[in-house]
Design brief:
By secondary structure, the protein is α/β, with parallel strands linked by helices. The chain is 29% helix and 8% strand.
Length: 240
């Protein structure tokens, strides 16, 4: 496709709203509202509109997505089209759609444990799964992680694919990951979009934080970003 990774002024056709101070988010929002986004962005947005489920398949680069996928996120999930201040998280524009990450790693599974050298994989996934997918309203399914396939024997790689194939058959029936409901927060600038005092009081006696990101200074809830309550664990790895 030769999809361009860089988010620039070229994504907008016609005159800018504020040529004195170019702000990509504001300009692309107005361009989306007026039908002035570039053709490659519009084509991808149509795919998003038609999809019930979006699977982001990628090799993990530097604890995140490769540049071209980051560019797709930056350019396609434009303000207005994918989110607004009034429509975000569980009130988001894509709240009736599902999305998930499916990716390969170079590291072994043990390296991404809480006591592993790379740190907890749940923390690594929080910005993508909460800050991008859930922020746009998607119901986020548990990720499919292929641990270190380049360093696995053929039998293990085959098992990985068989597990993924089996999971795909029932994917749309899976329950999504758990995130903090927007109703827990004061959704106003005056209130700072902070957790409501009554919620803090209710959570004071809980052994874990609410989510990986809303930990409230407590231990993280186990597997918050890697397992849903009823999700089947079909992952294979090289950790043995």
């Amino acid at each position: 496709m030769n999809f361009r990774a860089s988010a620039t002024q070229e994504d907008i056709t016609g005159d800018l709203k504020n040529p004195e101070l170019f702000q990509y988010g504001d300009e692309t929002m107005h361009a989306w509202m007026e039908g002035r986004l570039s053709d490659d962005i519009v084509a991808e947005q149509r795919k998003v509109e038609e999809a019930e489920l979006i699977i982001f398949q990628f090799p993990m680069y530097w604890f995140s997505v490769p540049a071209i996928m980051k560019g797709w996120i930056d350019r396609v999930l434009a303000q207005g089209f994918a989110f607004s201040l009034q429509k975000m998280y569980d009130n988001g524009i894509f709240k009736d759609k599902k999305a998930m990450l499916s990716f390969t790693t170079a590291a072994t599974q043990t390296m991404f444990q809480p006591d592993g050298i790379n740190g907890d994989i749940n923390v690594t996934l929080w910005p993508l799964q909460n800050g991008t997918l859930h922020f746009c309203g998607f119901q986020v399914l548990a990720p499919q992680i292929f641990w270190s396939p380049a360093h696995c024997p053929l039998t293990v790689r085959t098992a990985m694919l068989e597990g993924w194939r089996a999971r795909l058959r029932g994917l749309l029936m899976e329950k999504p990951l758990t995130f903090a409901p927007s109703g827990m927060f004061d959704l106003s600038f005056q209130g700072g979009f902070l957790l409501q005092p009554k919620v803090k009081e209710e959570q004071a006696s809980q052994p874990y934080g609410i989510t990986t990101g809303h930990h409230l200074g407590k231990p993280l809830p186990p597997d918050n970003q890697t397992k849903a309550q009823s999700a089947n664990d079909n992952k294979s790895d090289c950790s043995n």
